[in-house]
Design goal:
The protein is an alpha+beta fold. The chain is built from 15 helices and 15 strands.
Length: 494
């Protein structure tokens, strides 16, 4: 099951002190669990649970002081699974209410048993409701579009497999098969994207109706997804071996733009996938950051002289192709450049380090790499423990904010602003909304993002000081907006 970016623990999960695992409700339970938390008989939205406690949301603010005792009951599938008392342990105010954490005073929550009961109920409901019950919730016009796409996949799988076997029998080389894949890719790319745009329009009709949306996603994942799992990009995004879809390997697929897969069909649809507008935008936003980094480096050299240090931080760096491309492009410069690469995955940092170090060594560039293995939980909840305040000349983040709600994004942006040196700039990327191409990631990849309009991206900087110079710009691929913030004078955000 996909985890939210706010729940990805990274290295934090290897803490030396044991603490009962805390899980978000949407990650622990099925879509049909319908958890209900009653406190003194009043229902509140459940946020997360652990063996010895839970937290919930209070839209109108907390009603109990810390240390107060409350009676609570937890229901799942309309059946009680826990009843007892708890004490209020913490209160976290937010812009739309508060999150209240409580510790259980009687009994405990057996999470594996709760998950087992949820699965058992899910099985019963699936058997009772059956395939016909699911199908009945899916709009007919959407089913028709999925059927059309299903035929598209099956027709070309059959055709491509047949001709691949024929060519192999005739002694075709790998180069011959690659040329065949290239020809098929050029023929199928536009027809597929037309279907994908039409499916997006159908999905837009029910995106705000949760029950219909859930049924439509389940239907799509039942009918179409199994046909795409031999396509490397689709397999990686949908199965999420690192817990989330857009990991460093997916980014490398986008950057490499090659034909990957064990069959011509897999190669063709892998290549089509990395031509998706959002995937193409990953490459154009990378080039955009390289250009901004060059401009900021020139600015620092002009202001502080040839012996200066140019400090850059990349948040959620992934493979950090921006840095290796920058070094390959510029090769050398006066002074020294220091890049701090931050990611929650050690594998991603390893890939980034090797690629960047290779370019630095190739050109004997005056550059230094600092790596910081920091979980997304820590980034969002605690900020970024990076050197001293006002120590960075340029900070950028290309993808993380696609998954962070507005209030938390504003807090993190303020923390990043505090790390900027006077005159420095940060660039925060976010997928452009509304989207006419979200169907493929959302329905085929189970890859949900927060698509923001220009006004919504600008609002991410609402807590910054009035002295901050804010501009929202679309990168050249027109798939991602960037909130570019210049720190015109010294001082901290809060």
């Amino acid at each position: 099951m996909v985890k939210s970016y706010e729940a990805l623990m990274g290295s934090l999960g290897r803490s030396m002190f044991y603490r009962p695992e805390r899980q978000r409700v949407r990650e622990l339970l099925s879509r049909d669990a319908r958890p209900k938390l009653l406190i003194n008989g009043v229902e509140y939205p459940l946020f997360d649970v652990s063996m010895n406690g839970l937290s919930f949301l209070t839209p109108n603010g907390p009603q109990w002081p810390i240390g107060n005792t409350i009676d609570l009951e937890l229901l799942l599938h309309e059946e009680p699974i826990y009843s007892g008392t708890a004490h209020v342990a913490r209160i976290e105010p937010g812009p739309r209410g508060s999150r209240v954490g409580v510790g259980l005073m009687t009994g405990y929550l057996d999470l594996p048993e709760i998950r087992r009961r949820d699965d058992q109920k899910l099985l019963e409901e699936q058997m009772d409701r059956g395939a016909a019950g699911q199908l009945a919730k899916v709009p007919e016009s959407y089913r028709e579009k999925v059927t059309e796409i299903l035929h598209f996949f099956q027709y070309y799988r059959r055709a491509l497999d047949y001709h691949e076997r024929r060519f192999r029998a005739e002694g075709a080389t790998d180069s011959d098969l690659l040329a065949f894949a290239q020809r098929a890719f050029e023929a199928l790319r536009e027809p597929y994207f037309q279907l994908h745009r039409e499916a997006t329009l159908e999905a837009l009709k029910f995106m705000s109706e949760r029950e219909v949306l859930v049924a439509a996603k389940e239907y799509t994942e039942t009918v179409l997804v199994p046909l795409t799992l031999d396509v490397p990009l689709n397999n990686r995004a949908y199965l999420k071996p690192m817990g989330y879809p857009g990991d460093y390997q997916v980014m490398l697929y986008y950057y490499n733009k090659s034909f990957e897969g064990d069959s011509v069909f897999a190669k063709v649809f892998h290549r089509i996938g990395i031509e998706h507008p959002l995937a193409h935008g990953v490459c154009t936003r990378k080039d955009y950051i390289v250009t901004l980094m060059e401009d900021e480096h020139d600015r620092v050299l002009a202001e502080r002289g040839d012996a200066c240090e140019f400090r850059v931080a990349s948040l959620g760096c992934g493979p950090a192709r921006e840095v290796s491309d920058y070094v390959a492009k510029r090769r050398t410069w006066p002074g020294r450049a220091i890049w701090t690469l931050i990611d929650q995955e050690e594998e991603a940092l390893g890939v980034a380090f090797r690629a960047c170090k290779r370019e630095i060594g190739e050109w004997s560039s005056p550059g230094q790499l600092d790596l910081l293995n920091l979980s997304f939980v820590q980034m969002i909840n605690e900020g970024v423990p990076l050197h001293d305040p006002e120590s960075q000349d340029y900070i950028y983040c290309t993808g993380l904010f696609d998954y962070i709600k507005e209030s938390r994004a504003q807090v993190l942006i303020c923390a990043l602003y505090d790390l900027l040196a006077p005159g420095g700039m940060m660039s925060i990327g976010n997928a452009i909304g509304p989207q006419d191409c979200f169907w493929t990631p959302e329905f085929l990849g189970d890859w949900s993002m927060i698509y923001r309009t220009r006004e919504q991206v600008e609002r991410l900087g609402a807590r910054l000081p009035e002295s901050a110079a804010i501009e929202v710009t679309a990168e050249p691929g027109n798939a991602y907006y960037f909130l570019n913030v210049r720190k015109t004078k010294g001082g901290l955000c809060a």
